[in-house]
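As a warm-up, study this chain.
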Amino acid sequence: MRKGEPIPPFPQKEVVLISSSKVLLHSVVATSALVGALVSAPHATAIERPSVTLSASADADTRLIAAEDPAAISAAATLCGAGFDTVSGVKPLPEGTDPRLRLAALFTYINKSGKGCAVLDNNAEGKKYMYLSVCDIDGKNCGTDSGYFTDHAGPVYVPKVACARVTAKAGNSPSKLYIDYTSKYVFPCN
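Now compare it with the structure written out below.
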């Protein structure tokens, strides 16, 4: 391999690099597999993507994003972990934004035991302040994640999904928000 040529795809065992008349042997390790497994949005690393089904109560935005960007639906489910295979909803943010032009997206999932998971995906460029909180209907048992993230805030979990409340914020800083979304509930009320 000559300087400037691309590294052959995984599974390459040895790569020979020529630099200043010296031949260096380089063993390609799991990093090649990791690089190949990166997904675009949400920004998760997933070796195996779970099969995700839509909740019967999924709205039009959720159905549109699931149809046009199934990798995003699957990647956010991967962040939630094993068992979160039903997408309750995807909320493009800021509210009212064309789903294709979203600056963020709130992904919510349900597992078979009734637990909920939420991920706030950053679709804007660079590291942004993000805040995500999901609480039971009584305002207790809250899951929260906040800070400056390039990819996403969360996952956060709530033990009972029925009527769980959600707050999602994103911006350049906590005082310069372009998303300040609060809902009475993010998961359907039964």
